[in-house]
Amino acid sequence: MYKLSILNSARLIRGGIMSSRSVSTLTYIELDRNGQITSSALSSLAASRKLGDSIDALILGANAMKAASDLISSGNTNNLEKIIVAESPIYDHTLPEYISPLICELMKGSKYSSFVMASTEIGKNVLPRIGALMNTQPICDITMIHNKDTFERPIYAGNVLATIKKDGGKKLITIRASSFPPVVEGTPERIPIEKYSYTPEKDVGIRWDAENLVTNKRPDLASAKIVVSGGRALKDKKTFDGLLGSLADVLHAGIGSTRAAVDSGLCDNSLQVGQTGKIVAPDLYFAIGLSGAIQHLAGMKNSKVIVAINNDADAPIFQIADYSLEGDLFEVVPELTKKLKLMEKN
């Protein structure tokens, strides 16, 4: 692992120098499709605390008020000064054309020195637009906060850690949720909820039409405690669903895949783990029939325990696996599933 230092001085960025009164962090609280606060949102709050300033939480959508009440009831409110809600269904689909101008409006003036959100699909879609509107370079996918001006993020598929220092100016940050454990529940506090109304200056020229979702009753891949992932060696979609699905069901696990498996039509691209897919760090990660290409390792190598099953003794995945099993996955996985089912019954 190599380390690279990058100094990002405010004198080189047209973002302006912050007033000394800028002592608050605005944190975006992401909701799932059911209006529930996501685990990555709680990770964003945990990261915001490390900046050392007071925190205002921002919740958008038709269920924003209920989500704000749930956040207060959960007790995950340490260092939280207030919760800002913009309750409107136009934010339910997190279209950046609607969200970004609202956040930019909030970030005006000297109230907020930093804006933090998780590096999810939403964060990757929204933050660059905010950066363009504010003429400020975002600091993306950080995995460590040294202090309010110095951050660490992986580059080159995680093989190099870049230390980025930005003195002055407003900071736009996305965090890698797996690197910041979610804030834990505590004693509920009295936190004020402030309603915020924003009217765009002009028609954004885009509207939500429809969506066609792949439904899945299994745990969400990004937050699952156990993940079972398969590669192209599973040959076809029927085998992928059958072998991995049975094992995932008995483990109550989420299912992941490599990009090669997605490109081969074995599964939907929403299951892809890796540099261009989802970043996961579960307690237990099964790598089945995948070689361990560097792009895939970038998305799962921080898993607490990695179990690799492969018939190639030289597969790179064995180099990082905690437990390695060299064998034919078409024999090993059904046998493993059978043994686990027997254990579950007993």
Automatic annotation (TrEMBL):
Keyword Mitochondrion assigned: yes
SUPFAM superfamilies in alphabetical order: Adenine nucleotide alpha hydrolases-like, DHS-like NAD/FAD-binding domain
Pfam families in alphabetical order: ETF (PF01012), ETF_alpha (PF00766)
Matches recorded under InterPro entries: DHS-like_NAD/FAD-binding_dom, ETF_a/b_N, ETF_a/FixB, ETF_alpha_N, ETF_asu_C, Rossmann-like_a/b/a_fold
Cofactor note: Binds 1 FAD per dimer.
One cellular component term from this protein's GO annotations in UniProt: mitochondrial matrix
Cofactor dependence: FAD
Domain Electron transfer flavoprotein alpha/beta-subunit N-terminal: 25-212
A GO term for molecular function: flavin adenine dinucleotide binding
Biological processes annotated in GO: fatty acid beta-oxidation using acyl-CoA dehydrogenase
Primary localisation category: mitochondrion
Keywords linked to the UniProt accession: Electron transport, FAD, Flavoprotein, Mitochondrion, Transport
Cellular localization per UniProt: Mitochondrion matrix
This protein's record includes keyword DNA repair: no
Positions contributing to FAD binding: 232, 258-259, 272-276, 289-296, 310
Assembly behavior: Heterodimer of an alpha and a beta subunit.
Function: The electron transfer flavoprotein serves as a specific electron acceptor for several dehydrogenases, including five acyl-CoA dehydrogenases, glutaryl-CoA and sarcosine dehydrogenase. It transfers the electrons to the main mitochondrial respiratory chain via ETF-ubiquinone oxidoreductase (ETF dehydrogenase).
Similarity annotation: Belongs to the ETF alpha-subunit/FixB family.
Protein name, UniProt field: Probable electron transfer flavoprotein subunit alpha
Organism of this sequence: Kazachstania africana (strain ATCC 22294 / BCRC 22015 / CBS 2517 / CECT 1963 / NBRC 1671 / NRRL Y-8276)
